[in-house]
Specification:
single chain; 49 residues; mainly beta; Rubrerythrin, domain 2; 4-stranded antiparallel sheet; elongated; structural constituent of ribosome; Ribosomal_bL33; ribonucleoprotein; Ribosomal_zn-bd
């Protein structure tokens, strides 16, 4: 039931993190504030396809 998703930074567009999510409880795309090592501060990371 859980699927592997990739999180990309909204500022530099780099794919920094991978995580899993449950598609039945979260059908839309994830958005999490995480640390981006290239921007060197916390930014919004969105799920990419």
């Amino acid at each position: 039931m859980r699927t592997l998703v990739t999180l990309a930074c909204t500022e530099c567009k780099r794919r920094n993190y991978t995580t899993t999510k449950n598609k039945s409880t979260m059908p839309d795309r994830m958005e999490i504030k995480k640390y981006c090592p290239w921007c060197r501060h916390h930014t919004l990371h969105k799920e990419t396809r």
